[in-house]
# Entry
Amino acid sequence: MVKEGYYFGLPPLVAGGAALLLHWYLSAAVSVFLALFVFSFFRDPDRVIPAEPGAVVSPADGRVVVVTEEENAGRPGQRLSVFLAIWNVHVNRAPASGTITNLDYRPGKFLAAMRERASLENEQNVFTLSTEAGEMVFKQIAGLIARRVVSWKRPGEPVLRGERIGLVRFGSRVDVWLPKGAEILVKTGEHVKGGSSLIARWPAKRTSNRSEGKGAAEANLAATGKPS
# Structure
């Protein structure tokens, strides 16, 4: 569980204990249920990260709601959107190994994350990631219930495929944009898991395959303690 779980979960748990001592059983039950929900929401399970060269993994748990062709800064490409329901794991992970060259926080609305307009109009963090195959973009997008996007990384920092990079609180959406040369492997309606589900293949340079595979193995050791 991430540390935010303790901040949000301990107060209702303590309140539930106090209510139980006062024989306010209904209040105690509601408070304890709320605490258990919060602890579950902020869970952070380990994942086995694919070591396949050129693999792009889902940044989050959820359901694929959009797969479409879309330009980014005039470059042709494809966008995938994953909707996170309130019961999904909300820790976000890097879809590929590389360096974060830009991180742009954009304040905005809090439309329902299922709506297509949310990708453009909602509050979001936009990551630009430079990889050995090229440049990709992914977003953490707040939703109707999620009211804060949290990044644990800064521009200039390297990340490994599947590495934890942040979270969005209480229901949200993530977008991934890839150049036209990437092969998309998922379809609308499929369920994916952050860090472990393969969503695309993006061929890297031949000279980088060995290092990328090594990077994924290192990410596995860091995230799960288990080599893939």
Notes: The mean pLDDT is 81. The chain has four helices and 14 strands. The first strand starts at residue 55 and ends at 57. The CA atoms of residues 81 and 175 lie 4 Å apart.
